[in-house]
Design goal:
Length: 512
């Protein structure tokens, strides 16, 4: 192994060495290289327990792209149905081809990974497909794919190894269950699927699979969309339930195993296709909320029970980098610095901070400027916009209604809200009350907007501009003074008059 050599700006082999190819790590490397620093990225990622290969860009970047592709595949199925109300005549029965989707998405991910490597080379970042392990505050032991080792030094080191899906630690979970990153490794449709976990990742997968016409059951463990506004989470759940997704509440999965019939077919050399062999192949055992042990058969079990920072096997303990015992995430200060000087962490490997691809890129860029341009601007980890790519998309920025009430007190919080009906939904007569917006304001601070929530088509794109306004101190009065664009859904943010207090008062009067 011969790592890139050449002069650096100081007494080290590199000015910056990044362990991990996550989106934040790529951003800090590219920005540092643009500032004429010598930079090396080490990225050797093991496949998932199911053997799925991980590409350069990290779990968040690649999975974000895949999430969008899968959501679009689901939405196109609905659009085909709607198209007949717009005068389109379908000449033949329309069906979905799983293998075509899988091939197209996998090819796109590989292409983007190759593009990232070319971009790194163009901007002067050295890249090695190798494992990095800290052996000193400025020293990393590099092991290539052939097992050859060499030590390299750097003035500053950034950890950007990202996170990995968690498993439940029950019999059969790693042997027979998938995670979201394994979904597109299936050569055939997953069939009847049990999604374990009510995280954003779980609901997105459930919505996508159901949108393709597959039967889906979601087993919530332990709650729905933890960390998100719970009233919005309940609306998403209602929408999916009405659409036909089944939910299991207060259940605990205890075991996943192959059924005897499936094992017999596989051993006897049955000539059925792989899809037929997998039908009903997994038997799940779970405990209901009443304490009863139950069993049910599924074709696929997909785990979406959270993610954990990937901090093992990179030498953090050896050099004294402190991590959370609960999450495994690296403890950092407001400058993204770890407990060891000149060692930093970026992205989902951090403990206790929100994690999105956009945030990681932003934080990585600012870190490089602080290190090598003497800037002082810190990344703002509050009011981070995020989107859940369920079939009915949900985007949010700022505080949830529950967090606002807890922070300021209910008397100091005003919540403006309303349902809306996208114009394009009127011809196919889709549900008039599915889409919803909510603006949360802090009354004593001139009704400053502290939370924005929207559920509907293209919710993430709708919210983006309002996020900028929030960072500038947006108030409800300014929002009301904004001219809405008609026809369009974003204009509903500028016309809200109904408050939560008004709605609750009308409900109480209706019950009298």
């Amino acid at each position: 192994m011969d790592p890139p050599t050449g002069p650096s700006m100081g007494p080290y082999d590199y000015d910056l060495l990044v362990i991990g190819g996550g989106s934040g790590g790529l951003a800090v490397a590219q920005e540092a290289a643009g500032l004429r620093r010598k930079v090396l990225i080490l990225d050797l990622v093991a496949p998932s327990p199911r053997g799925t290969k991980r590409e350069l860009g990290g779990s968040s970047y690649n999975m974000d792209n895949i999430r969008k592709f899968l959501q679009q595949a689901s939405l196109l199925g609905t659009a085909i149905q709607d198209s007949q109300k717009y005068g389109w005549r379908l000449k033949e029965h329309v069906c979905h081809g799983w293998s075509e989707l899988v091939e197209a998405v996998q090819e796109q991910v590989k292409t983007r990974s190759s593009e990232l490597k070319r971009e790194l080379k163009t901007c002067g970042v050295f890249y090695l497909n190798a494992h990095g392990e800290l052996v000193g505050p400025h020293k990393v032991e590099v092991t290539d794919v052939y097992g050859r080792k060499r030590c390299l030094t750097a003035e500053s080191i950034v950890i950007a190894t990202g996170d990995r899906p968690q498993y439940l630690g029950i019999p059969g979970d790693k042997e027979y269950c998938l995670t979201s990153e394994d979904l597109l490794s299936l050569p055939q449709p997953p069939g009847r699927t049990l999604v374990v976990g009510g995280s954003a990742e779980g609901l997105e997968c459930a919505g996508f699979l159901f949108g393709l016409g597959l039967p889906v059951t979601v087993m919530l463990q332990p709650e729905l969309l933890p960390g998100f506004d719970q009233k919005m989470a309940q609306m998403i759940e209602n929408h999916m339930t009405v659409g036909g997704v089944d939910f299991l509440y207060h259940c605990s999965l205890t075991k996943v195993e192959l059924t005897e019939s499936c094992t017999k077919d596989a051993v006897s050399g049955d000539s059925a296709t792989p899809q037929q062999v997998s039908r009903g192949s997994l038997r799940v055992t779970f405990i209901s909320k009443e304490g009863q042990t139950k069993q049910e058969d599924f074709d696929t079990v997909l785990l979406a029970v959270g993610r954990k920072a990937f901090t093992s096997d990179i030498g953090l303990e050896r050099v004294g980098v402190l991590c959370s015992q609960d999450s495994g995430g690296i403890l950092v200060n407001e400058k993204d610095q770890t407990s060891v000087e000149r060692i930093y962490a970026i992205g989902s490997v951090q403990h206790g901070r929100p994690s999105t691809t956009g945030l990681s890129v932003h934080a990585g860029t600012l870190l490089a400027r602080r290190l090598f341009r003497e800037d002082s601007l810190l990344c703002d980890y509050t009011s981070v916009p995020t989107v859940v790519l369920t079939p009915l998309e949900y985007a949010a920025c700022g505080l949830s209604e529950e967090k606002a009430n807890l922070t300021f007190g209910e008397a100091s919080v005003e919540v403006y809200h309303n349902n809306y009906w996208p114009l394009e939904w009127t011809l196919p007569a889709r549900n008039k009350y599915s889409c919803y917006i909510k603006v949360i304001c802090h009354i004593p601070d001139n009704e400053r907007v502290v939370g924005l929530h929207v559920m509907g088509p293209n919710a993430g794109d709708i919210l983006q501009g309002f996020v900028t306004a929030m960072k500038c101190g947006l108030t409800k009065q300014q929002l009301d003074a904004t001219v809405g664009i008609h026809p369009g859904s974003a204009q509903w943010f500028t016309t809200l008059t109904q408050t939560r207090r008004m709605t609750e008062a009308m409900t109480m009067r209706g019950n009298c």
